Amino acid sequence: MGDTERPLVLSVRDGNHVTLTLNRAEQLNPLDRRTIAALRSAVAEIEEQEDISVVVIRGAGRAFSAGGDLEGYLDLYRDRRKFMRFLRDFQALLETIERSEKTFIAVVQGHCVAGGLELVLACDIVLVAHEARIADGHLNFAQLPGAGGSQRLPRAIGALRAKLLILTGRMIDGVEAERIGLASLAAPLDSLDETLAELLKDLDAHSPLGLRSAKYLVNSGALPGRDLGLELELTHVHHYATTSRDASEGLIAFRDKRKPDLRGE
User: Fold this and answer.
1) Which of 81, 214, 260, 264 has a CA 20 to 30 Å removed from the CA of 252?
2) What superkingdom does the record give (predicted)?
3) Tens digits of residue pLDDT in 169-184
4) What is the dihedral of CA 172, 177, 181, 187, to 10 degrees?
């Protein structure tokens, strides 16, 4: 079955839980325009169902998500309006998750990079495998986080650690992610599902109203000033990507499987 026939996002309900699975394992589950649209549609449908209290997001195969479709970005960069629409759609998805009354759990079993990390950062609880490989990674190909990564990552792990990950592109495993506060829980890969089941059991022991209220209170203290930061990120990334040589060169180098020739232009 080709990508045009296969569902980009699988949605499976189990009682008051829904699992959304990014479903392009062969491509490491890229978060391109079609996948973002599919996720927004799935989340919007879930938001209408009051008896769902927990949403799990995970990736098929060996990756959670390796990030955006970098080759596809070349076309987006040539159309300023289309690229801005993509950024706003991605940010809108993550803000919906963050502001939802439901509890969102990210389950990271493998690679989680760039846009994949930005998706994870919008969730309420992050469960990672010890063997997971996590990075911001944008600057490795002269890109910038444009779906909230520059704002949510420092809030999660502090500005100094966030700048280390963003500025170096360094990749860390799940053990390190839990140690620095990037993950809520870490477990060996072969017991990841068991740990998830225990977590869901813990959540189900509390009232849905209590879960909603607790999430609201925690977020209310964490979010002031963030909206301005997100808008600044979006406009800066849009300008950088559509006007700089480096941004396009980074994508071309990725396509050609070589290191980018970066000149600060």
Assistant:
1) 81
2) Bacteria
3) 999 999 999 999 999 9
4) 180
